[in-house]
Prior knowledge:
The protein is built from ten helices and six strands; from the N terminus they run E-H-H-H-H-H-E-H-E-H-E-H-E-H-E-H. The chain is α/β, with parallel strands linked by helices.
Amino acid sequence: xxxxxxxxxxxxxxxxxxxxxxxxxxxxxxxxxxxxxxxxxxxxxxxxxxxxxxxxxxxxxxxxxxxxxxxxxxxxxxxxxxxxxxxxxxxxxxxxxxxxxxxxxxxxxxxxxxxxxxxxxxxxxxxxxxxxxxxxxxxxxxxxxxxxxxxxxxxxxxxxxxxxxxxxxxxxxxxxxxxxxxxxxxxxxxxxxxxxxxxxxxxxxxxxxxxxxxxxxxxxxxxxxxxxxxxxxxxxxxxxxxxxxxxxxx
Length: 250
């Protein structure tokens, strides 16, 4: 939902992450961070909720999706949509995920600049993992369809941690699995929940405005925001990290 972006002049100042040098790893969320999947999730929710007469049959809109669904784990979504029957909500979410997988297989494509960034990461031998609240089947399907199965060295699922995002647990697990230092690791996220998780785990988070307004994301305290991986602001930061990392080695 690229139309949600509202980056403003306060975000135009030149950011720096030079304290991360030498950069060792980059961790990515999946939905909305590797691909603009939120519009597909919205379609799946709209179709199935309308089918059961939710909201008196009036389809949910983008605002409802952003406020109540985007970035959240299904256990939380089930409670929000079906507060009086969470078991029904969990079953509904499973049905929605099955529909989503059918839709996403036809529509998914990487965010602008992502492939360039993955090549940059590989060329420098950086470690990398996907850290997601998505169900395992969804995460594996999206990563596969994007051609990134061999790129990621680990996929950390919120459902396999004690608590999903916004708890820092999934990101702390990624640090543990890849034997990383949080002082030299960068995170990419697109939701308030995800940014909060990365920040709570002690890492700087670059936020993407693919599915949420910049004003909302800034409340979670990202290092800075970008519209896509082609954003010149991001590449200026990476170039600075490159230069500082090289000078430290020499």
